[in-house]
Amino acid sequence: MANTLTKIWNNRKQILEGIKNTMIRDEYIEDVSRLRTEICDACPSKGDECAIPGTAPCCNECGCSLAFKTRALSTECPLGKWKALMTEEEEDELDDL
Question: Is residue 11 within 8 Å of residue 64, measured between CB atoms?
């Protein structure tokens, strides 16, 4: 349980970014999410071992919900299959606009 909470805490900014981008839809972010989801769908690490119950499908490597993780532009695949498109700082600046 402590390991799961640590994962959530360490990824909190990306999780919140993904939640925000799920609720406030943007065409570019949705395109990025679709491309990332195609990669995740073919990955053996896609599963139900979610850090937050009820958010499956998830990445079994980090426990993040794929619905949120694929929409967070400042996050990357823990296996290196896709990269972050901006830094957390750039994402913060974008949110401030």
Answer: yes
Place of tokens 């990669």: 39
Q: Is the pLDDT of residue 46 over 90?
A: yes
DSSP, collapsed to helix, strand or coil, labels residue 65 as strand
State the chain's maximal CA–CA distance in angstroms. 38
Closest to 72 in 3D by CA, of 38, 6, 26, 39: 26
Give the pLDDT of residue 95.
Answer: 66
SS3 46: strand
Query: In this predicted model, what pLDDT tens digit does every residue of 8-23 receive, in sequence order?
Result: 777 777 777 888 888 7
Give the tokens for residue 22.
């799920």
Backbone angles phi, psi at 42, to 5 degrees: -90, 0
